[in-house]
Structure formats: C-alpha cells, structure tokens
Automatic annotation (TrEMBL):
GO terms for molecular function: DNA binding; DNA-binding transcription factor activity. Residues 221-281 form the HTH myb-type domain. This is HTH myb-type domain-containing protein. It comes from the Eukaryota. InterPro entries: HHO5-like, HHO5-like_N, Homeodomain-like_sf, Myb_dom, Myb_dom_plants, SANT/Myb. Residues 118-129, 214-223 have a biased composition (Basic and acidic residues). Residues 203-213, 364-395 have a biased composition (Low complexity). Residues 99-129, 203-227, 359-395 are annotated as: Disordered.
Length: 395
DNA sequence: GTAGCAATAT
DNA sequence: GATATTGCTA
C-alpha cells in the first residue's frame, strides 16, 4: 500500500479506517470473481484492525500492521515500483549475501549495520516501524540509496519512467552481483521509496559518467538498464497469472493491469512472462515421462513449503472462485501456477535451484536445515518473512 | 498496439 | 548459466 494510505490511517483513526475498509470491501464484493484475493485481503485487514482496536488499542503501531501489511499492501492500490539495483555498487546487501570481502565504503558498512539490526532481530521497535513501511514495496530499490542517491542513474532512465512516483531504480552498470542477489534483496528489505531517491539521483548522473568513455555512455543510454523482479513483485505477477487463468492464457497487458504496479511496462511483464513460461514448461514438456518415473518425487513450492504436486494441484484448480492458491516463491523462482493444465513438476535441476535459494534464505535466517532431503519446512522456521500471505487458508 | 519468440546484453 | 532487454515478426 502506498504510504499515503498509511498516513490516512493515522489521520482517520482506527474506526474510520475500518469503516473505509468495509466500504472498500463492499466495492470489491461487486466483483468477487475478479478480485477474490483483494476481497480476502481486505477482509483480513478489517479483522486485524478490529483486533487491534479491541486489543492493543493504545499501541496502534506497526506490530499489528506488519502482520497484515503484506496482505493489505500487496493487492491494494497501485504500487510504486522500485527496482533492485543488482549492481555491485548498489547494496550493502550484496556484501551480506555473498559475504564478499569486497569492501565498499565504510559508509556502506555503517549503514548496512543499521539496517541489519532492524532486519535481523526485530527487537528495536522504532526500526521496526520504519521497516514496515519500507517492506511493502514491490520494486526493491537500492537499500543503500540514501547514499547512492548521488550515484549514477541515467537521466534517460528517469525520463522513460518519468511517471510520478514511478521512478525505477535502475541497476548500476557495473554489476558483479549475481542475480541471486535479487532473491535475497527482495525479501522485504528496507529501502527508500523510489521517488525521492530517484529524483535526487539525477544530479550527478552525467557528471560521474563523463569521466568514463562516451561509448559506454551511449550504450547505457541506448539500452535500458537491467532491473530485477522483487519477490513481492513476482508474487503479484503470480497472483495476476492466477486470476487470468494461468501463464498460458494470460497476456502481458492483462497481467500488467492486474498487477497494478505503477511504471511497470508491458515489455517487462512480457519478458518476465516469457521467462516464466520457459521455466514452467521446460520441465513438464521435455521430461514429462521421466519426471513421472523419477524416483525423487518432484515437488513444487507452495509458500515456503514443498509439496507434492497432487496436493498442490488440488488447491489452485479454481482460478476465480476466490480459492486462491497462495503461490509465493522467492524472487527469480518460478513457482508454477496451479492453473496450468499439467501440474508443473520440477526436475531435479529445477528443484535444486529452488532448494538452493531456499537454503540461502535459511542461511540468512541462521537456519541451515534444508540440506539434502526434500522436506517441507516447518512454518515456524520461516514464519515471519514472506509467508505472511499464506496465513489465511491452509491447503 | 500487442503478443510471442529469438537474439543479445549483463 | 540465469535473467533482463531489445528486435523482429505475425
């Protein structure tokens, strides 16, 4: 949800906000089939707020909010997009992820520490509050953008995406960061809103690049800088896919509209869809036979849990009935949408990828128990981060 | 203008 | 090798 809405909450007061939510729900109820998830989410939001109201009324803060933030934020309202810069320059998180010895400036470290504190142990409530707001965005912006604000962002980029509140964070040119970073970064990392950061980015862009050769500059201007799909964004993508009946029937434009992400282009969605299709089709098409006979039963990722396709497939067969399958996958991972005609299976290789990325997440949670065998993760081990959207319906 | 695929860049 | 962007075609 946009921060403006959050502000509204405070202005309105709780009960007013609940009222507003209920009105919203009424509107949504007009289109129960089109907006099943929204209905669900708004309902949950109302409930949560009511609980807050009755319970910890004195502290209307982000504790309760954070619990439902993902639900409420992920589908309500247009989203200001923010891309994660995966370039090396970019983020302290890169260091965090790869434990790189590549020391950036000290400022990065100090900043990093600060964020890490708020992220890892949610003890500091003040931090928590601010992080909550940050965590709701879809495009992962450069977490270090406060200082990186002075770094290069192509002016062209800003012109292209010049919509208000739609400033993307382009990736830096010189990335040494693996794409996997995106997966990590996408887990609700703290980041700035795109607008402020991006707007301040403009200043030094040209000057810093002028030092370099002009050839490269031209190239940069010609070619759009790479952007990364955050987890939240991908989640939206999947949700949109579901509502549209799967990757096969959905079109980029439809998806884009459903995702309701400000600044997201058709091309980007198209590209993502293409990749998604590649990922989801390849296993089933090429290895359909072998997949069946494989001793290792293919698993699919549902939420943070690997489940058997049968279990998985049973859930999402209805696309618009409101029985939404909660497909949540780390960014870069293409959890098959259940509405695909063949329940997509994951080959060993594919699955290994899933596994690895999950392991990485575990690693960051100091929870390396996913070694080897495929098993469903105990919800307890990964409850807080990105499984929040799964809490409403069990499978 | 849009979607899909392939080539190319990162 | 994976992923995002761009170009081409229908």
């Amino acid at each position: 949800m946009s921060s403006t809405l959050t502000m509204q909450r405070f202005k309105m007061g709780f009960s007013d906000y609940i009222q507003a939510l209920e009105q919203e729900r009424l509107k949504i109820q007009v289109f129960p089939k089109e907006l099943p998830l929204s209905l669900e989410l708004v309902t949950q939001a109302i409930e949560t707020c009511r609980q807050q109201l009755s319970g910890t009324t004195t502290e209307y803060n982000l504790n309760g909010q954070s619990e439902c933030s993902e639900q409420t934020t992920s589908t309500e309202g247009p989203v200001l997009e923010e891309f994660i810069p995966i370039k090396k320059r970019a983020s302290p998180y890169c260091e965090q992820v790869y434990d790189d010895d590549d020391e950036e400036e000290d400022e990065h470290h100090s900043h990093h520490k600060q964020q890490k504190i708020s992220m890892d142990d949610n003890k500091n409530s003040d931090k928590k509050k601010s992080d909550w707001l940050r965590s709701v965005q879809l495009w992962n912006s450069d977490p270090s953008s406060e200082e990186d604000a002075t770094r290069k962002v192509s002016v062209l980029e800003l012109k292209r995406n010049g919509s208000v509140g739609g400033a993307f964070h382009p990736f830096q040119k010189d990335d040494r960061v693996n794409n996997k970073t995106c997966e990590f970064l996408s887990k609700g990392q703290p980041s700035l809103t795109g607008v402020a950061a991006a707007s301040s980015n403009v200043a030094t862009t040209v000057t810093s690049n002028n030092a370099g050769n002009t050839k490269r500059e031209d190239k940069e201007e010609k070619r759009k800088q790479r952007r990364c799909w955050s987890q939240e964004l991908h989640k939206r993508f999947l949700q949109a896919l579901q509502q549209l009946g799967g990757a096969d029937s959905a079109t980029p434009k439809q998806i884009r509209e459903l995702m309701n992400v400000d600044g997201l282009t058709n091309d980007e969605v198209k590209s993502h869809l293409q990749k998604y299709r590649l990922h989801t089709r390849r296993p089933s098409s090429t290895n359909n036979e072998s997949a069946k006979s494989q001793t290792a039963t293919p698993f699919v990722l549902v939420g943070n849990i690997f489940v058997q396709p049968t279990e998985y497939g049973g859930v999402g067969s209805s696309t618009t009935s409101g029985e939404m399958t909660k497909v949540v996958a780390p960014s870069g991972i293409y959890a098959p949408v259940a509405t695909h005609p063949p329940v997509t299976t994951i080959k060993k290789l594919e699955f290994k990828k899933f596994e690895n990325s999950i392991s990485e997440e575990r690693g960051n949670n100091n929870n390396n128990n996913s070694e080897g065998a495929v098993h469903s993760n105990s919800p307890a081990s990964s409850s807080s981060t990105h499984t929040t959207t799964n809490n409403s319906r069990g499978f």
